[in-house]
Specification:
The complex is a heterodimer.
Chain A: E1 3-6, E2 10-14, E3 19-23, H1 31-45, E4 50-55, H2 64-72, E5 78-84, H3 89-100, E6 107-110, H4 113-120
Parallel strand pairs in A: 3-4, 4-5, 5-6
Antiparallel strand pairs in A: 1-2, 2-3
Helix pairs in contact in A: 1-2
Chain B: H1 5-20, E1 26-27, H2 36-56, E2 69-78, E3 83-86, H3 88-94, H4 98-101, H5 112-125, E4 131-140, E5 146-157, E6 164-174, H6 203-218, H7 227-234, H8 238-249, H9 253-271, H10 276-282, H11 288-299, H12 303-307
Antiparallel strand pairs in B: 1-5, 2-3, 2-6, 4-5, 5-6
Helix pairs in contact in B: 1-2, 6-8, 7-8, 9-11
The chains are: A alpha/beta, B alpha+beta.
C-alpha cells in the first residue's frame, strides 16, 4: 500500500510501515496550519498507529498555539516519532519543542535519514 | 544593513531588554537563513512565547503578587487609513512619539505581509457602512521588533459627518505596574470555600505536580488512582498534590482529567471513523450518558452532532 497527499503545509507519503511527512517552506506554522496538518494525517492513517518520520528541515517558524496543539492533540496514532533536522535552526526548534512539551510518543531528532529510519525500526526501501 | 550580523545581534539585545522589562509581546522577524544567529532568534521567540504564556497564566509560578497590566494598542484612523488618534500606550508599545505616528498611514508601520492583508481585507470592509472584523497584523516598532497580534477592527461612520472611520484595537499583557498596591483580592484561589488552602511548594513539589500533569495527559484511557495512592507513588502527600495542582494549573486533578479526555474525544470524533462507542472506551469514560453530557457542556453540541 502506498499513498500520498499534499496540503499547503506538508507532503505526506504513506507506506505500509511508515508515514513520512515533509513540512514545506512556509513563513509560519500557526494553529490553523497545525490543525490541518493533524487532520490530514489522521485521515490518511485511518486509525492505524504507525511510526512517523517528520522532516522539518524547511521549518523556520512555528508559533506557540501550533506547538501546543501538535503536542496535545497531534499525537494520536503516532507510535514513534523521528524529526529530521538541519542544524542549527531546526535543531533548536525541535529541542525547545521537546523540552517544553510533555511527549506522549517516544521522539528523537536526527540529522540523517538512515539513522532516523533505524530509530523508527523501519527498513529503507527507496532512496528519497 | 538589515542582514549584517551586527544588526541582527542588536535586534536580539533589544528583544532581551524588553523581556527583562516583562514585555513578552514582541517578536523578532525570523529569517530564511540557517545559521547560528537565526537559530538564536528562533529560540528567543519561542522562549519568549513560553515565558509569556506562563506569565499570563498566573498560577504557574508563585503568583500571589504577580503584577499584571493590560496595555492597549488602539488607533482611530480615517477612511483612508491615516492615523488620527492613538493612546499613549500605543506610542510606548511602538516606541514612537505621537507626532511620528499621527497623520501617517497605518500601513507605514506594518510588515509587508500585513500591508498586503490589510489592503486586501479593508477594501472589502470599507465598502460597508459599518463592519467589524478581526485581523492578524504585524506592526514594526521603532526598534525594529515585531508586534504580532489579532486586532479588532471596526469601521463606523463619524457622528459629525466627517465620514468613515476605522477603530483598530488590541491588548497585550505586560508585567509593568501593578493594578493595585494592596494585596490582590480575587487572585487564583485554591478553594471556593471559606478556608483558603495555601500550600508552599518547593521546586521539587512543582516538578512532582508537573509529572502528575504529564502522566495524566499520557494515560487518558486509564483509570486514575486515588489521590492518596497517586501522592504515595510520587513521594508527596495528598494535601500537597490536591491543592498544589489546583494552585499551579487552576483546576482540580479530576476536572483536568475530564477536560483532557474530552479534548481527545473531540479530535477522534472529528478526524477518525471510530464509532462514538469506541471513542468513549478509548477516552476512559465509564458511561455514555456522562460522556455525552460532559461533551455537550464543554463544546456546546453533542458528540453525534459534531460527527454529522
Amino acid at each position: 500500500m502506498k499513498k500520498s497527499h499534499e496540503n499547503n503545509y506538508a507532503i505526506y507519503l504513506l507506506t505500509d510501515d511508515l508515514l513520512h511527512i515533509i513540512y514545506k517552506k512556509v513563513p509560519c506554522i500557526n494553529l490553523k496550519a497545525a490543525q490541518l496538518i493533524v487532520k490530514d494525517r489522521m485521515e490518511l492513517q485511518e486509525g492505524k498507529p504507525m511510526p512517523v518520520l517528520c522532516d522539518i528541515r524547511e521549518v523556520r517558524n512555528i508559533d506557540k498555539a501550533a506547538r501546543d496543539y501538535l503536542a496535545l492533540d497531534g499525537s494520536l496514532w503516532v507510535e514513534k516519532l523521528a524529526f529530521l533536522i538541519d542544524p542549527p535552526v531546526t535543531d533548536m526548534i525541535s529541542s525547545i519543542y521537546l523540552d517544553t512539551h510533555a511527549q506522549k510518543v517516544p521522539t528523537q531528532s536526527f540529522t540523517n535519514k538512515p539513522e532516523a529510519m533505524d530509530y523508527l525500526g523501519v527498513k529503507e526501501k527507496d532512496n528519497n | 544593513m538589515p542582514n549584517s550580523d551586527d544588526f541582527r545581534v542588536k535586534r536580539i539585545q533589544k528583544m532581551l531588554l524588553e523581556m527583562a522589562k516583562g514585555n513578552f509581546f514582541y517578536t523578532i522577524e525570523p529569517s530564511d537563513k540557517n545559521d547560528n544567529i537565526a537559530s538564536l532568534v528562533v529560540m528567543l521567540n519561542m522562549v519568549n512565547e513560553e515565558i509569556g504564556a506562563a506569565f499570563i497564566h498566573q498560577g504557574f509560578a508563585n503568583a500571589h503578587n504577580t503584577p499584571q497590566c493590560v496595555v492597549q494598542l488602539s488607533f482611530i484612523l480615517d477612511g483612508n487609513g491615516q492615523i488620527e488618534l492613538l493612546t499613549n500606550g500605543t506610542c510606548s508599545l511602538m516606541s514612537y512619539l505621537p507626532k511620528d505616528l499621527i497623520g501617517k498611514h497605518i500601513t507605514a508601520f506594518m510588515t509587508e505581509k500585513s500591508v498586503e492583508r490589510w489592503t486586501k481585507k479593508m477594501t472589502k470592509y470599507l465598502k460597508r457602512e459599518r463592519s467589524e472584523t478581526v485581523l492578524f497584523l504585524e506592526f514594526v516598532t521603532n526598534d525594529g521588533l515585531l508586534l504580532a497580534k489579532d486586532c479588532q477592527i471596526s469601521v463606523y461612520q463619524a457622528l459629525d459627518g466627517s465620514g468613515q472611520k476605522i477603530h483598530l484595537n488590541s491588548v497585550f499583557f505586560s508585567k509593568g505596574e501593578p493594578f493595585e498596591t494592596s494585596l490582590p483580592k480575587k487572585k487564583l484561589k485554591v478553594t471556593k470555600g471559606i478556608k483558603e488552602h495555601k500550600v508552599t511548594l518547593t521546586p521539587d513539589d512543582i516538578q512532582i505536580i508537573r509529572d502528575v500533569h504529564d502522566m495524566i495527559t499520557n494515560n487518558l484511557d486509564k483509570d486514575l488512582p486515588t489521590l492518596k495512592d497517586l501522592a504515595r507513588q510520587k513521594g508527596t502527600n495528598e494535601y500537597k498534590l490536591k491543592y498544589g495542582f489546583k494552585q499551579i494549573y487552576g483546576t482540580t486533578i479530576f476536572r483536568f482529567l475530564i477536560r483532557e479526555r474530552l479534548r481527545m474525544a473531540k479530535t477522534l470524533i472529528q478526524h477518525s471513523t471510530l464509532t462514538i462507542k469506541q471513542i468513549i472506551q478509548m477516552t476512559g469514560f465509564k458511561s455514555k450518558t456522562h460522556f455525552s453530557r460532559a461533551f455537550k457542556e464543554k463544546y456546546g453540541m453533542s458528540p453525534s452532532d459534531l460527527r454529522a
